[in-house]
């Protein structure tokens, strides 16, 4: 099953494992893609995945996701992107461009900017974003957002992508409208399920008009919001919304299945089903809570606002032995963390579904594919970019497998993208640095040879 090609909307994926969005600081500061970015994407194309979904390309000029992530907010970004997308596709790997707007979840900026606070409703949130408070968008600002998505989608097509994915999850702007714990508007953009869905509906409608009926269009959607995770954040999210279940849980599965059915009517071709709200989060990135790396991020952004300074100070003050167990509540490794929800979408909505979250072993991938059309993976592929080629050649899970420590996620906004888990390299710090640098260079460097676990100790005896 895993190596069976599958065609959707005229795009043939050579197998059923997709590289899920992986963002790193690889574009130029203004959002132009670079040779480094292209080389990184080509590594996965050569590693045997069936297709690649890009990191989030920002649709808004001010709200990058974050610095040195690519953008489609201006026409000038198209020519270099076109050249690089052709290089990736030449490796036989379809390329889907994800577009999104982080809204008030914007992680960093040159200076604190008003645009980075814009959201569905006003409110306070401790962990995500850096603005002191979220600020409700005006109807006019909402119209601008819709237009920006339409234009960015058209640019993705012009750049030669095989399709687009709109991110409506992760606690980003569209999700800030969908999620009843965050959207407290009483106008046409909130109040009811239809009201909260309206922004996504209008974006999908306008994007479809813009790219045409023959272009692959996917939506990345949270099937359940799990607003009570991470715990620290849900307690500090003000004002609390009523009924309390909206605050605690956000959207439930029946509600999002309704969204899925509507998306099908609107002409969406594929659904990428995930769970949770916010990045990184225990449902989106099942595994360990990366305390030290989050501290690094908080310290690196503390100059941006009073909230950013306060959260950094707090985390620096509380001893790790107290902070770690508290902040780790709800974080645990789980293969196919959203599989149950993805299956429900496959069954009830009937669109092709991509399942995501915590996959690595061949048997877990097979389990995901027994009910869904595709499995998408990020962290396990950062650890082993040619994992799928290895599976094709009959190999089992590599010894240097991903440990789901989540250090890569928490570092993605401050450091070069790569695996920061020394354990995987048998404690060999140099090889870890080599792999990180091999990901962040404009020319292909052979990946460092990783010795079997225990080899380092054996060599020193
Ligand atoms: C370093 C890193 C960067 C990521 N960047 C993005 C992104 O730009 N957009 C997005 O939708 N998801 C992003 N993700 C989330 C992944 O696409 C994926 O959903 C998540 O890591 C869970 O899948 P996994 O268990 O296979 O890692 C990122 C994940 C990692 C580890």
From TrEMBL:
Pfam families: Oxidored_FMN. Keywords: Flavoprotein, Oxidoreductase. It comes from Methylobacterium planeticum. The keyword Oxidoreductase applies. SUPFAM superfamilies: FMN-linked oxidoreductases (SSF51395). The keyword Oxidoreductase applies. InterPro entries: Aldolase_TIM, NADH_flavin_oxidoreductase, OxRdtase_FMN_N. It comes from the Bacteria. This is NADH:flavin oxidoreductase/NADH oxidase N-terminal domain-containing protein.
């Amino acid at each position: 099953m895993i190596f069976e090609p599958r065609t959707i909307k005229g795009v043939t994926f050579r197998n059923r494992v997709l590289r899920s969005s992986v963002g790193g600081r690889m574009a130029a500061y203004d959002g132009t893609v670079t040779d480094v970015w292209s080389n990184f994407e080509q590594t996965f194309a050569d590693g045997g995945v069936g297709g690649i979904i890009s990191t989030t390309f920002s649709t808004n000029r001010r709200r990058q996701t974050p610095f040195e992530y690519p953008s489609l907010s201006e026409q000038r970004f198209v020519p270099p992107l076109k050249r690089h997308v052709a290089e990736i596709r030449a490796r036989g790997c379809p390329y889907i461009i994800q577009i999104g707007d982080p809204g008030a979840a914007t992680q960093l900026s040159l200076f604190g900017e008003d645009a980075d606070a814009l959201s569905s409703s006003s409110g306070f949130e401790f962990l995500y974003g850096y603005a002191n408070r979220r600020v409700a968008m005006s109807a006019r600002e909402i119209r601008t957002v819709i237009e920006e998505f339409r234009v960015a989608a058209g640019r993705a097509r012009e750049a030669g992508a095989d399709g687009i994915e709109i991110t409506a999850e992760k606690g980003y702007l569209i999700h800030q409208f969908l999620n009843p714990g965050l959207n407290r508007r009483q106008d046409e953009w909130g109040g009811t399920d239809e009201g909260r869905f309206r922004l996504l509906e209008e974006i999908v409608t306008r994007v479809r008009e813009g790219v045409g009926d023959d272009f692959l269009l996917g939506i990345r959607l949270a099937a359940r919001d799990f607003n009570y995770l991470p715990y620290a954040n849900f307690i500090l999210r003000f004002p609390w919304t009523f009924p309390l279940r909206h605050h605690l849980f956000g959207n439930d599965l029946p509600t999002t299945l309704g969204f899925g059915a509507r998306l099908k009517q609107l002409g969406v071709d594929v659904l990428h089903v995930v769970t949770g709200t916010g990045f990184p989060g225990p449902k989106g990135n099942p595994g360990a809570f990366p305390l030290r790396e989050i501290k690094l991020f908080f310290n690196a952004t503390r100059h941006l606002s009073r909230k950013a300074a306060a959260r950094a100070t707090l985390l620096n003050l509380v001893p790790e032995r107290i902070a770690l167990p508290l902040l780790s509540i709800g974080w645990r490794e789980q293969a196919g963390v959203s599989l149950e929800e993805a299956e429900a979408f496959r069954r009830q909505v009937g669109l092709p579904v991509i399942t995501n979250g915590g996959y690595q072993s061949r048997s877990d991938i097979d389990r995901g594919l027994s009910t869904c059309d595709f499995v998408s993976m990020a962290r396990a592929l950062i650890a082993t970019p040619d994992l799928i080629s290895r599976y094709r050649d009959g190999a089992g899970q590599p010894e240097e497998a991903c440990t789901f420590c989540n250090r890569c996620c928490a570092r993605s906004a401050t450091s070069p993208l790569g695996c920061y888990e020394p354990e995987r390299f048998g404690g060999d710090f140099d090889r870890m640095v080599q792999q990180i640098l091999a990901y962040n260079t404009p020319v292909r460097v052979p990946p460092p040879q990783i010795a079997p676990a225990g080899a380092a100790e054996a060599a020193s005896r």
